[in-house]
Amino acid sequence: MKQILQNLASGVTNLADIPSQKVRANHLLIRTTRSLVSVGTERMLVEFGKANLLDKARQQPEKVRMVLDKVKTDGVVPTLEAVRNKLDQPLPMGYCNVGTVLEVGQGVTGFSIGDRVASNGKHAEIVCVPKNLCAKAPDCVSDEAAAFTVIGAIGLQGIRLIQPTLGEAVVVSGLGLIGLMTVQLLKAHGCRVLGLDYDVSKLALAQKLGAETVDLNQNADPLGAAMVFSRGRGVDAVIITASTKSNDPVHHAAQMCRKRGRIVLVGVTGLELSRADFYEKELSFQVSCSYGPGRYDSAYEDNGHDYPLGYVRWTEQRNFEAVLDMLADHRLQTDLLISHHIPFDQATTAYDIISSRVPSLGIVLEYPEPDAFSHSRLLRRTIVRSEEPLNEDRSAATPVIGCIGAGNYATQVLLPAFQKTGVPFQAVASSTGVSAAHAGSKFGFSEITSDGRSVIEASQINTIIIATRHDSHAALAGEALKVGKHVFVEKPLAITREALTELSEVYDECVRAQASPPLVMVGFNRRFAPHIQRMKQLLDGVREPKTFVMTVNAGHIPQDHWTQDRLIGGGRIVGEGCHFVDLLRFLAGSPIIAVQAMATGKTPGTIVAEDKVTVTLRFEDGSMGTIHYFSNGHKAFPKEQLEVFCAGKVLQLENFRKLRGYGWSGFRKMDLWNQDKGQVACVAAFIDAIRQGNGSPISWDELVEVTQVTFDIMDSLT
């Protein structure tokens, strides 16, 4: 299928060939008939993409501060590479979609195949959308009109926040698509409406829709006009739908309002507020969150949990339904708001238009009705990028790579590391297909797919990279082992004891059944870092117990992030803390025989206590290690520090850049310009082991031991 993607690094917008998604639980798979280009929002993204790095930085000063902190801890080169990789990630465009339901996911009720629905789906021939972000379109509402549903819901949510009453005087500042829909919705509420804008054509449309207007381009006095409009009292409320860096819309809104008036920001403006503007009048100011309650709540959007009607009358979905009802009753007009109709195969033309001085408002993309041939193309989940046959002389020891997962870490770290080994890349998979298409193009994969299991089943692939969310690692690794594939699993190996047990049984069966069983490797890269390798050389010469102190300034991750979810990410100790357990296990060179852990107290001010943990490990040879894993530190402080005390000597490692030795004969320091956590060396060791027919660089027993210890840590905390 085709989908519109924006590259934020170059500003290029293209119509890309993307594998179709598989319908997910609590989602609908929809074939698009129409989608609406939101000129204001999408123009802003295009302009940001076309800006140079300096201008991008000026637009996001908070991101600049994060970059500078990262430079201090990680070095210039890794930081720049991370920034470039982040900007290079393709951004799917669009959020106003109408189409026909093709498939209904598990857990979905109230929708059937063939239903015509409006959703916040992207500009793509096939979209997979959460059920709570879809609403059935009445038969009397055309596809073109229904494409305005989401835009209308954004305006409607802003109106719900000002809580207008019949006859109130309301100003709409900014008369783009959202502003003009807001004008109509306010009129339907029985309000008097004054519209402000610089564009004469938009002002004329607002007048046709029942608003009085002020032309800001003619040096008109909006404050004076608002006072006249409100009969000298000040307006009851202002809804700001404009998109500008200026603080003026908020400042003027405050001046226009009566005492205890209400201001709601729906658009994007400067937010340097004047206390005096708000203090004397006791004004209320609120920022509206998109389409309504439920937005950015994963339980509502991804997992399909609706809010009880008695407590939350208007959710995102119910706002969609309300807009569609008003479209059906002809209380909302959309024909006047359409400036262009563009066939989807010429969709990039729309972005040329919004980037130019050509007048535009609502741009409707029209999707062709598929025939039998094109329908099969739309639902194609695997796309062959290269028909070049594999080298017939290639031996079984030659790794041929299939990758499942193509997120930031995979594309920024793992795949570049594998690329350096010279191995052929055959297929890459991601759930949406978008990141797979990007990785396929960037790294030269022969196939891209949204079906991860097809990668495992491909006969020409003998080595699988698993870089998906943590809860799928063990199951995918087990499936790959069952068909005799080597496996590189990004940590953790498993997030539950049950999953680890099942995977161990599969591995043991492989060992029993095959003389040369496939290799399993977990991305415990730190033990391969040059500093750690040097420390290991020094410590192996010490025959007495060692004491390790590992301090991890882990950084804050919100409680609702997937890594904090025990069922998906396993929590931060299982998901990331395993790195440091493995590191100490490697340096000690001895099994872990006892574990103790303590977290901060669960007080009202503590969020996710288990990411502020001190862990004590005891090793079989008498060594002892302490891991301080804290998420409540400052970003400028080094993320990882390790100290080793033994035999009257000390080793001190700072953030994988500086190593200091105290009391060591022939060793004082080892410095690197840039941070090196061993990712490249880790991958190289794995590939070399396959090529040479050796065992895994990390033994299976150690992988299981380290994973079990992370479970023991979590048990100790409960």
Helix content: 25-40%
Can you tell me the CATH superfamily of the largest domain? Medium-chain alcohol dehydrogenases, catalytic domain
Briefly note the CATH topology name of the largest domain. Answer: Quinone Oxidoreductase, Chain A, domain 1
What overall geometry do the principal axes of the alpha carbons give?
Answer: globular
Strand-residue proportion: 15-25%
Query: For the CA atoms, what is the radius of gyration?
Result: 29 Å
Strand order, largest beta sheet = 25-26-27-24-28-29-30-31
Span between termini: 48 Å
Number of helices: 24
Structure notes:
The longest helix has 18 residues, at 700-717. This protein has four domains: 2-148 and 298-366, Alpha-Beta Complex (Quinone Oxidoreductase, Chain A, domain 1), CATH 3.90.180; 150-287, NAD(P)-binding Rossmann-like Domain (Rossmann fold), CATH 3.40.50.720; 382-522, 3-Layer(aba) Sandwich (Rossmann fold); 525-683 and 693-717, Dihydrodipicolinate Reductase, domain 2 (2-Layer Sandwich), CATH 3.30.360. With 718 residues, it is an alpha/beta fold. The two termini are 48 Å apart.
Topology, element by element:
Elements: E1 2-6, E2 13-17, E3 27-38, H1 39-50, H2 53-59, H3 61-74, H4 76-88, E4 91-92, E5 97-104, E6 116-119, E7 126-130, E8 134-136, H5 143-146, H6 149-162, E9 169-173, H7 177-188, E10 192-197, H8 200-208, E11 212-215, H9 222-229, E12 235-240, H10 248-256, E13 257-265, H11 275-279, E14 284-287, H12 298-301, H13 316-328, E15 338-343, H14 348-355, E16 362-366, H15 372-378, E17 382-384, E18 401-404, H16 408-419, E19 425-429, H17 434-443, E20 447-449, H18 452-457, E21 463-466, H19 473-482, E22 486-489, H20 497-513, E23 520-522, H21 530-539, E24 547-553, H22 572-588, E25 592-599, E26 612-619, E27 624-630, E28 640-646, E29 649-654, E30 658-662, E31 669-671, H23 679-692, H24 700-717
Parallel strand pairs: 9-10, 9-12, 10-11, 12-13, 13-14, 15-16, 18-19, 18-21, 19-20, 21-22, 22-23, 24-27
Antiparallel strand pairs: 1-2, 1-4, 3-5, 3-7, 3-16, 5-6, 6-8, 17-20, 24-28, 25-26, 26-27, 28-29, 29-30, 30-31
Helix pairs in contact: 3-4, 6-7, 6-13, 16-23, 19-20, 21-22, 22-24
